[in-house]
Amino acid sequence: MTLIKSISGIRGTIGGRTGDTLNPLDIVKFTTAYATFMSRKTGQSGLKIVVGRDGRISGEMVKNVVCGTLMGCGCDVINIGYATTPTTELAVRMAQADGGIIITASHNPRQWNALKLLNGEGEFLTAADGAEVLDIAAREDFNYAEVDQLGQYTEDFSFDQRHIDSVLQLKLADLNAIKSRKFRVCVDTINSVGGIILPKLFEALDVEYQILNGACTGDFAHNPEPLEKNLHGIMEKMRQGGFDLGIVVDPDVDRLAFICEDGTMFGEEYTLVSVADYVLSNLSKNTPGTLTTVSNLSSTRALRDVTEKYGGQYHAAAVGEVNVTTKMKEVGAVIGGEGNGGVIYPESHYGRDALVGIVLFLSSLAQKGCTASELRATFPDYQIAKNRIDLTPDTDVDAILAKVKEMFAKDNSAKVNDIDGVKIDFADRWVHLRKSNTEPIIRVYSEAPTMDMADELGKKLMQVVYDMQ
């Protein structure tokens, strides 16, 4: 079964049987449930909904079904076309819309697509709101508009430039320093929407660029998740010399990874760490009070270390962008995000945004006058092993996590956190097991001073799972 309904939206493979995959009938059902929920929540009819999509092969089909369904629900649709996830989020606010739907399966392979659902602030629905949408869909508790109340359809392709303009206006975007540095970058945009918007950003920054996999065809040149094992092409290009930085984004451009000038990975986990260091170093000079940061439980300890270096306070949240943003609002965080390369900067908006990350990272490099590898060497060095356990229909995930928690409950050397799966924290390492929101797997992330130590810890816990099956 490849239809996943979760806090991250409705996600599945294209084709197949109704109820098992993301096909036109299920797309209609969940789009209608969303429109019904938003109408009831706002107490209004005739809502204005923004729709944007990444470059996936199935995107045109899904977009047509979504837009037609919204119109059938009486909603006015603003189709912004090919657009990144953060562009669509910002477009909801800029257009003063009531909500939005992003058609993207993020880092999943080409056969997947998804509906990510936004509220009137351009932010993901909360878990409670998402559950209500799913309940409406399950009960098919909805009606469609009569002919005189059908929604209107318009197109507006101006939001790429408006997104770029908003990023360039950030207080810590040091445009003069970036332009003076004359950066030369190599960029892998994985044959999706990054190939449309990022050249416009680099031209505005006077950054010389070469785009790899730049055609927005949705026929991904390699596995689209921006992990080292998938990035040999751009890493080899960087090793040949001539570039200051390698930049990699996922298909919807909310995740960001850097490659150093020598072709080595900067480290996906260190995207947020490096940008947070830049933000904290600047804000700590002039901002009274304690600065706070947030990342999820599966992210590196390096953010905590960097935050404390500036006298700030670090907080952990459950995995999932909405959980991180909720915690950020609660503690007033100046920056936050996820260790998967997701930077959330509230001055811009409460959503992961690779464009924001790129501009702040280049500002940091330009101000410091260093290379990417030199910058990386200034941060605490941790290694994270990212493993996974594929689930079968018979897997009892709750029983597995309860067993792991029980194993360490009486271990005085470990702290157990069960707000999201089970995380076991030791003095110099940790391991986190949790069911994925986006794939039928258990993610097993572990961090330690060396990769061998991290991998050993992760595999020890994986064996516990295998022994139970």
Task: List the strand order in the largest sheet.
Answer: 1-2-6-5-3-4-7
Main pleated-sheet profile? 7 strands, mixed
Which percent band covers the strand fraction?
A: 15-25%
Mass-distribution shape = globular
Q: What is the rounded distance between the termini?
A: 19 Å
The whole-number mean of residue pLDDT values reads: 94
Tally of contiguous helical segments = 15
Number of E-type strands: 20
User: Roughly how many Å is the radius of gyration?
Assistant: 22 Å
The residue ranges in which pLDDT falls below 50 over 5 or more consecutive positions are none
| Class by SSE composition | alpha/beta
Bin the helical content.
25-40%
Brief description of this entry?
With 469 residues, the chain is α/β, with parallel strands linked by helices. The protein has helices at residues 24-42, 59-72, 85-94, 127-139, 159-168, 175-181, 194-204, 232-239, 270-286, 302-309, 321-331, 354-368, 372-376, 397-408, 451-468; strands at residues 3-6, 9-13, 48-53, 76-82, 99-103, 112-118, 153-155, 184-188, 208-212, 245-249, 256-259, 292-296, 313-317, 335-338, 342-344, 383-390, 415-417, 422-425, 430-435, 441-448.
Description:
This protein is an alpha/beta fold. The relative contact order is 0.10. The two termini are 19 Å apart. The model has no long low-confidence stretch (mean pLDDT 94). The strands form four sheets. The chain has a seven-stranded mixed sheet with strand order 1-2-6-5-3-4-7, sandwiched between helices. A five-stranded antiparallel sheet has the order 16-20-19-18-17, with helices on one face. The protein has a four-stranded mixed sheet with strand order 9-8-10-11, sandwiched between helices. It is built from 15 helices and 20 strands. α1 crosses α2 (59-72), α6 packs across α12 and α9 packs parallel to α10. The chain has helices at residues 24-42, 59-72, 85-94, 127-139, 159-168, 175-181, 194-204, 232-239, 270-286, 302-309, 321-331, 354-368, 372-376, 397-408, 451-468; strands at 3-6, 9-13, 48-53, 76-82, 99-103, 112-118, 153-155, 184-188, 208-212, 245-249, 256-259, 292-296, 313-317, 335-338, 342-344, 383-390, 415-417, 422-425, 430-435, 441-448. The longest helix is centred in the N-terminal third of the chain and has 19 residues, at 24-42. The chain is 38% helix and 22% strand.
